[in-house]
Amino acid sequence: MANAVKKIFPLGFPWQTQDPFLFCVYHLDHYPKGNKDMTPAASLEGRSLGNDFVIKDGWRMYHGQTIPGFPSHPHRGFETITIVNKGFCDHSDSLGAAGRFGEGDVQWMTAGRGVQHSEMFPLLKTEEENTLELFQIWLNLPKKSKYVEPHFAMLWHEDIPIIKTDNACVKVIAGSYQNTEAPKPAPDSWAADVENEVAIWNIDVNANVNYTLPKANTEVSRTLYFYEGSDIEIDGNSIQPNYGIELHPFENIDIKVGNKSAHFLLLQGKPIAEPVVQHGPFVMNTQDEIRATMKDYGLTQFGGWPWQHADNVHEREKGRFAKYPNGTLVEKE
């Protein structure tokens, strides 16, 4: 293996990404016990409610005023992929879709021409802490797909393949790993074309072992995020947790793991290679399109908000479920 590593960089908030990805953030919040109304059973004094991104007592409220999370906000021109490893997320949107997902579930939403949604983190456990571990990834849409119809899908953890070996466990959220295919992505996604070789893998490797990350087949952008563990070694580089590694795609990557298990997120894909103009939650190709988007949102609110509250949460007793815009309801145990 020669020149496997292109670049090593510290992980900020959010994480640095490469085309076709726009954004990736890792949330790890050790929320306290919840009250019966799913609010924290702890004082909110001293927090900048509505804009609370500083970890205090091990957790953040984000934009939530009573329940942590992100009340209604718009998107256009890209997709959100939300991976909830621990805890739960309540989704509501302007299409009338809704869901509660977590403990390994993934939500894939194509914003396309425009959608509003909220993502709240209800604290369902009243007798113990409510730890939340969540990734949110923004995957760009090419110019031809910026105005497609919005799409909402739930990838239940029971349906997401997990490849287990003696040394590692790989959750295949997008793409293919060792000839095992992930669930189908959204139909208008950049990931829907296999030639774009989009991959999203959550990789857990045991302590004190060597693990080989298989090479890609095409010239893709490839970033490995080392977010938990002690230390690893790649191509002679000693790397601590909370670092990202940009990799050459045509090399198998040998990873030597230290005395704690190592946890990684891999993002990979063929670059879209088009201009990116972003204004907050809107991602287009030109400034004129951004101005048009802001005007559209001002006039239409992307269909309005059909829920009583901007920070809508579902009934506490509700289990995992997805309600689709056409009224189809899927309920899980």
From TrEMBL:
* InterPro entries associated with the record: Pirin, Pirin_C_dom, Pirin_N_dom, RmlC-like_jellyroll, RmlC_Cupin_sf
Know the name of this protein? Answer: Pirin family protein
Q: Which domain of life is it from?
A: Bacteria
Q: Which residues form the Pirin C-terminal domain?
A: 201-302
Give the family this protein belongs to, as stated in its UniProt record: Belongs to the pirin family.
- What Pfam families does this protein map onto? Pirin (PF02678), Pirin_C (PF05726)
Which positions fall inside the Pirin N-terminal domain?
A: 53-139
Record-linked CDD domains: cupin_pirin_N (cd02909)
Segments spanning the bilayer are: none
